[in-house]
Amino acid sequence: MSGALIETLIERIYEAAVTPQAWQFLAEELERLLRGPVVICRHAEHPLGVYASTADPSVADRYAAHFWRLDRGAQRLARARPGAVLTQADLAAEAGGEWREYLNDYIRPMGQDAVLYASPYRAGEEYVVVATARDRRAGAYEAGDVELLQRLSGHMARSLAVQDRLKTASLETAAAVQALDHVRAGVLVVDPDARVRFANLVAEAQLQQGALSLALGRVHGRCPDATRALHRAIQRAASAGETKVISLRRPGQAPTSVSVFRAARETANAVGGGGSVMLLFSDPQGGVEEARLQSVFGLTPAEARLLAALVRGERLSDYAVSASIRTTTVKSHLRSLFQKTGEQRQADLIRRVMSDPLLHAAA
Q1: Distance between CA atoms of 187 and 259, rounded to whole angstroms?
Q2: Average pLDDT, stretch 151-174?
Q3: What is the pLDDT of residues 278-292, one digit of tens each?
Q4: Co-location of 86 and 210 in the same domain
Q5: Contacts of 229 (CB under 8 A, 6+ apart)
Q6: Is 337:306 a contact under the CB 8 Å cutoff?
Q7: What is the mean pLDDT of the chain?
Q8: Nearest to 98, CA basis, from 80, 126, 75
């Protein structure tokens, strides 16, 4: 077997980490080299899914419906180390009725007799099986066939591990975005120049008709002063790690409090670069229920009203006027809020409320 062919197979294996269709190419090449249909599948106590198969679909259906229970080759691999390869000779001692039934009722009616198994990868209780069987006239699998699977197993293990990590990351990202959408939290990730790298559904709605807007790919306020304040906060977050809450307004709408802070490294990497800044805000139409604030933080009704107002974007002085109370009373309530929430700054207090799913989940 030429080195060039092996290199091609290895290239396809690593392509499969990000392009799962490449597993099918590998299965087709292995079928040609091993002279029999090939299946690459994932197992645990039962089959979990197929990466690629060159077998007739009806054969795979019969296996999934019944014969996997009799497949001693796959069962042996469940206890084997990753990289193990089992030949017909290794399984010759399997004289039980289930194995004979598997060979006589499943393998041999297809005109096949010799079997070969490999398990390149394991993740917890799950493991991947490469299985093939060929016509009895082709003879038993030989040392070269075993060596081929052994040579490819390490590369398959690394590719499958990467594929699992990418899948996990994708699921985590999708779950996080779905959760933020559900709790009506708007999330924008921007670069230091305010260019948008990511926006969830709530943020997209805000950009279209809320206190934020989008121009030439950059996030803006609805007036020059608001835009300057927003861009200044973004630049300070990116360069110095400062956290700031700014209140943005649009005529006829409630103010929107936007918490601006440096994004975590994982978030920055996910959206394509360092120096990213996150903008977090609640849906101004959704608001925060004062009863939930009382329940979560143990607040008095007066404290909950003040906190809800701060989250809506009201200033302390404005709230004192609208609530017809003294500024000293408002500041006293604010000190109590710091004590009960464990926060020390108004910006952190507002961000805490806006990012807490218990306070925004749909009733």
Answers
A1: 10
A2: 82
A3: 898 876 555 677 888
A4: no
A5: 221, 246
A6: yes
A7: 85
A8: 75
Secondary element (H or E) of residue 239: helix 224-240
Asked if residues 170 and 269 have their Cβ atoms less than 8 Å apart, the reply is: no
Do 191 and 297 fall within a single domain? Answer: no
pLDDT of residue 255: 75
- Inter-helix orientation angle 327-341/290-297, to 10°: 50
Q: What mean pLDDT do residues 132-143 have?
A: 88
Same domain, 239 and 328: no
Q: Identify the CA nearest to 60 among candidates 113, 120, 133, 119.
A: 133
- Domain holding 251, by residue range, is 183-283
CA distance 208 to 158: 44
The answer to whether residues 52 and 23 touch, using CB atoms and an 8 Å cutoff, is: yes
Q: What pLDDT sits at residue 95?
A: 59
SS3 244: strand
pLDDT band for position 23 (50/70/90)? very high
State how far the Cα of 228 lies from the Cα of 238, in Å rounded to an integer.
15
Note the pLDDT of residue 163.
87
325 and 276 share one domain: no
Q: Is 112 left (phi over 0), alpha (psi -120 to 50) or beta?
A: beta
Q: What is the pLDDT at residue 66? A: 92
> Are 26 and 162 found together in one domain?
yes
- List residues bridging with 195 in a β-sheet: 218
Q: Are residues 143 and 29 in the same domain?
A: yes
Q: Looking at the structure, tell me whether residues 54 and 132 fall in a common domain.
A: yes
What is the per-residue pLDDT across 74-85, written as a single tens digit (0 to 9) for each?
999 999 999 999
Query: Which amino acid is present at 41?
Result: C
The answer to whether residues 157 and 57 belong to one domain is yes
Determine what percent of the chain is predicted with pLDDT higher than 90: 44
Residues of the chain with pLDDT > 70, as a percent, come to 87
Phi and psi at 251, nearest 5°, equal -50, 130
